[in-house]
Design goal:
There is one protein chain. By secondary structure, the chain is α/β, with parallel strands linked by helices. It has ten helices and 13 strands. Helix 1 packs across helix 10, helix 2 crosses helix 10 and helix 5 packs across helix 6. The protein is globular and about 55 Å long. The two termini are about 35 Å apart. About 45% of the residues are buried. Bound molecules: N-carbamoyl-L-aspartate. N-carbamoyl-L-aspartate (NCD) binds next to helix 2 and helix 6.
Length: about 375
């Protein structure tokens, strides 16, 4: 597999291989390298980004390569109604690897289908953010703890946050005990909850407030409210009120273990108090820094620049089933013309089918 689109496309061993490689890259990050000399990364950012885009660009420069791309789709032929497929068809002539962030769920999958060079998903709507998860897990892995015996609380907007959606699968892959901490209405979507239970057999506990479990956690992963993804029928002020129930501050963290890591994909808004920044348990800035060696490792591996095997791929059963049209509003199938209707069967006690692009469950009419 040449692309990296979903965290559940890779195994634990494959992730650990990336972590070891990232560890080696920490030296190259300091000293510089020409591992990717003459190679070009294209960053195609249809949605806002600070850390993800800049850390990918920094990673490619540290590897001795070059970068081109855009951060405003309105300044591209997207504004002239060019299809995603056509854009990718062309951009892959200009670069050796593509990184895409898009406001349509499944857009990275479509890009990978079109591209002749590797494609990395840097976030597709509320669906997945797999390179963030590698960064998050690398941050835990670097502590040297036995990951299969730790408990991680994933707190906040678990409904609309793609970082959380990828993370829970990553945690489950490592056999980490998961505590989902979300107020009612912001809990994990049924698809993710179903896969955690039936595909991963994960050990999951659900609570509504961090105070209920703070003393049990080895890491607390905080997510902001994804205001920009709230559907029209929800009142933003009301949801904000609900979200204020999970504000993380010094008073709460006083009750946490002395070595509990506080993580956050960033940006933070007001769910994570600034007073925590000076607490030695606050690991979020280090976590964002870890995104550079992780992305160096991933790109070097996918471009075949290192002497280690790439990802094998999970070999899912994908079927074309005309009756299983996906109706998710932000799914790429609702916006990009001429996509085949592709679904995957999901394990569990009853037959479930998921859209191959956005992962949402689909049912025949
Ligand atoms: C996350 C994202 O874009 O999904 N940010 C990031 O990439 N570090 C999380 C967020 O925006 O809340």
């Amino acid at each position: 597999m040449r692309d990296f689109i979903r965290i559940d496309d890779v195994t634990r061993e494959e992730m650990e291989r990336v972590f070891h490689l990232a560890h080696d890259m920490e030296v190259m990050r300091e000293m510089g390298s020409d591992l990717c000399k003459g190679r070009i990364l294209a960053t195609l950012f249809y949605e806002p980004s600070t850390r993800t885009r800049l850390s990918f660009e920094s990673a490619m420069f540290r590897l001795g390569g070059n970068v081109l791309g855009f951060a405003d789709p309105q300044a591209t032929s997207f504004a002239k109604a060019e299809t995603l497929a056509d854009t990718i068809q062309m951009v892959c002539n200009y670069a050796d690897i593509l990184v895409i962030r898009h406001f349509w769920a499944g857009a990275a999958k479509v890009a990978a289908q079109q591209s002749r060079v590797p494609v990395i998903n840097a976030g597709d709507d509320g669906n997945q953010h797999p390179t963030q998860t590698l960064t998050d897990l690398y941050t835990l892995w670097k502590t040297g703890r036995d990951l299969s015996s730790i408990t991680v609380g994933v707190c906040g907007d678990l409904r609309f946050g793609r970082a959380a959606h990828s993370l829970v699968y990553g945690l489950a892959t490592f056999g980490i005990n998961i505590v989902l901490i979300a107020p009612p209405g912001l809990d994990l979507p049924p698809e993710e909850a179903w896969r955690l239970e039936h595909v991963y057999g994960a050990d999951v506990t659900c609570v509504e407030e961090p105070g209920e479990v703070i003393g049990d956690l080895d890491a607390l992963y905080v997510n902001r409210l994804q205001k920009e993804r709230l559907p029209k029928e929800l009142d933003p002020a009301e949801v904000q009120q609900i979200a204020s129930r999970y504000r993380i501050d010094a008073e709460l963290i006083r009750r946490a273990k002395s070595d509990c890591l506080v993580l956050h994909p960033l940006p933070r808004v007001d769910e994570l108090a600034r007073e925590l920044d000076s607490d030695p348990r606050a690991t979020y800035f280090e976590q964002s820094s870890n995104g550079v060696p992780i992305r160096m490792a991933l790109m070097a591996m996918l471009m075949g620049r290192v002497d280690r095997p790439g990802f094998a791929g999970q070999g899912r059963d994908v079927e074309e089933r005309a009756e299983h049209v996906c109706h998710a509003e932000t799914c790429v199938t609702q916006h990009e013309p001429r996509l085949p209707v592709l679904t995957e069967t999901v394990d569990g006690p009853s037959e479930k089918h998921a859209c191959h692009y956005c992962g949402r469950f689909v049912a025949a009419p």
